[in-house]
Specification:
The strands form 4 sheets. This protein has a 5-stranded antiparallel beta sheet with strand order 4-5-10-6-7. The chain contains 10 helices and 14 strands.
Amino acid sequence: MNHLRVHTLDEALAELARHPRRVLCGGTDVYADPSRPVAGSTWLDIGRVASLKPIALTDGHLRIGAAATWEAIEQSPLTPGVLREAAGQVGSRQIRVQGTLGGNLCHASPIADGVPPLLALEAQVELASLAGVRRLRLDQFLLGRRHTALRPDELLSAVLIPTPAPHERGAFIKLANRDGTALATVSAALCLRWNENGVAARAAIAIGGASDVPVRLRGLEARLEGARPVDLTHLIRDTPMPELSPIDDHRGSAALRRHLVRVAIERAAAHCGIEMEVNHVASK
């Protein structure tokens, strides 16, 4: 094994330009891919690059460094609620203390807890190399199961989230085969923005575990926009979801996953709808 630890972003980018390496940060997913053995790999350890860790508001965005841990994301007062809920459900506390946002995204698992809330929040990724920095929407970055748009000489340096609008509520629901630290069978992130008349002005829904990569449900989003809280349940139950392509595996059948997707969205919508109604009544 060849392990190189760097302390600055410039050092990291120079090493990637000189020789492609497997990037290591938190290290919690190192053994998760048996097709890529740890022994014999050439590693670039960025876990001590301080500039990749801050969480801060800048230029109308929330910027989360790729090396920010899930515990830091959960505890930051800047983190949108839907992402904070997801951060608190990533593995055990030991995983949340060590695991990072950038590692979660670059691992590109269909059931990554961090992806659905970021998709619903319209997040972008910042990809850095010696040639400069480029930005991609998260759905453009995630190309398939364990496959991203990251080039060999690039490093995912940050995630950018537009500042949420007022009256926007979000919820993240993770359904697994058991309680505790189990991986998700499916997960759902829902963001709803309500106008002053109590009608949904924007809906964003992202699903994990029911396709090769987490996806937005654009059709259902369009149906929910303009709806009132009392309309949400029947719209979620009746609207087709052609974006999904679940598989059968040891965590559940495709049919079970399709059913659980609607259950998860319905629970998330109930949370957002109840919050909206309470706030609407309190403002009168």
